[in-house]
């Protein structure tokens, strides 16, 4: 994996992925999105990795698409931006298909694609000074990176439509109040709190957590019958894991469980 624009480190079962173009608020050029996707693929293929922590370097989480890359030199024809979006789509699919928990530590502004990359994570914790902006409409574009999927499901259509059409900044506290993210914490504590959460998740029953993620992915399109059938199938799978037996034994023996992630 080449690491020009994305930092990658692994410790105690947690892969920390850091967007690293702080001079342009970690806005995404194509190689950065490719590196990010590769990082999630590495997290998927390495059984030693049991949780992912995603954050940004510097004062921002991510300002979305690198607009310097998107706009052609004066006089050149209008660019075809479908390829840029297709690259993002592969990233969002990789994030949602990764059957391991992804914690996002939003350290500053998350705008455009950056906001929706955060919303594609499983548990989002933001610094109190961070904010979320569906910046797309300001430049004549449509929310992408799954924004039109995640946001209305998180906050309802009325709020989603307003945020997308007005491109208003949503401060972290309001994002919590609206159910867009999980927690807002003091900036100085963000990495400690998010890191401890990811580290704890990395000691939990990884297969079970992955199956929860699969069920949550499906619940937005399944009807009740289909979801009940899916729960039954997933529970059969979870019931065959070593971690299930260990969890029950630990309960019976009144001790802390030692989960191995399978
Ligand atoms: O090809 C396609 O476009 C399709 C894909 C689209 C997906 C998208 O994400 S579209 C949305 C793109 N993002 C935006 O429109 C957000 C643009 N940025 C902003 O609105 C503001 O920068 C922020 C609200 C995020 C933060 O404002 P502020 O005042 O804290 O910082 P700033 O001064 O605006 O930015 C600091 C530097 O970062 C500045 O560079 P400089 O002047 O110091 O050399 C600025 O140009 C640069 N920067 C910020 N955002 C981007 C960026 N450079 C390139 N691309 C950016 N998106």
Task: Describe the structure concisely.
This protein is of the alpha/beta class. The protein contains eleven helices and ten strands.
What are the key terms here?
262 residues, alpha/beta, 6-stranded mixed β-sheet, 4-stranded mixed β-sheet, 11 helices, binds ligand T3D
Oligomer: single chain
Shape: globular
> How many individual β-strands?
10
Radius of gyration over C-alpha positions, nearest whole angstrom: 19 Å
Strand arrangement, largest sheet? 1-2-3-5-7-10
Q: So how many helices? A: 11
Overall helicity: 40-55%
Q: β content, as a range?
A: 15-25%
Structure description:
- The structure is a single chain.
- The chain contains eleven helices and ten strands.
- With 262 residues, it is an alpha/beta fold.
- A six-stranded mixed beta sheet has the order 1-2-3-5-7-10, sandwiched between helices. A four-stranded mixed beta sheet has the order 4-6-8-9.
- α1 (30-45) packs parallel to α3 (82-97), α5 packs across α6 and α9 runs antiparallel to α10 (224-239).
- Ligand T3D binds at residues 24-25, 27, 63-68, 70, 81, 84-85, 109, 111-113, 133, 135-136, 139, 141, 144.
């Amino acid at each position: 994996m080449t690491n020009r624009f994305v930092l990658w480190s692994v410790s105690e079962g947690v892969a920390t992925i850091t967007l690293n173009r702080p001079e342009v608020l970690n806005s995404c050029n194509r190689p950065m999105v490719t590196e990010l996707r590769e990082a999630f693929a590495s997290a998927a293929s390495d059984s030693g990795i049991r949780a992912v922590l995603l954050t940004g370097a510097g004062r921002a989480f991510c300002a979305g698409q690198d607009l310097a890359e998107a706009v052609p030199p004066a006089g050149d024809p209008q660019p075809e931006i479908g390829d840029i979006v297709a690259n993002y789509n592969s990233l969002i699919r990789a994030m949602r298909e990764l059957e391991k928990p992804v914690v996002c530590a939003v350290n500053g502004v998350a705008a455009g694609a950056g906001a929706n990359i955060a919303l594609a994570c499983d548990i989002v914790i933001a610094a109190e000074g961070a904010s979320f902006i569906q910046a797309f409409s300001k430049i004549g574009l449509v929310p992408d990176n799954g924004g039109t999927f995640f946001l209305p499901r998180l906050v309802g259509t009325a709020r989603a439509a307003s945020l997308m059409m007005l491109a208003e900044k949503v401060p972290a506290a309001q994002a919590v109040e609206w159910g867009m993210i999980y927690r807002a914490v003091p900036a100085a504590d963000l990495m400690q709190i998010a890191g401890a959460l990811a580290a704890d998740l990395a000691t939990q029953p990884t297969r079970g957590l992955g199956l929860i993620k699969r069920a949550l992915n499906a619940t937005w399109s399944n009807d009740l019958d289909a979801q009940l059938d899916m729960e039954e199938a997933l529970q059969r799978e979870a019931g065959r894991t070593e971690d299930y037996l260990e969890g029950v034994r630990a309960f019976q023996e009144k001790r802390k469980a030692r989960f191995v992630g399978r």
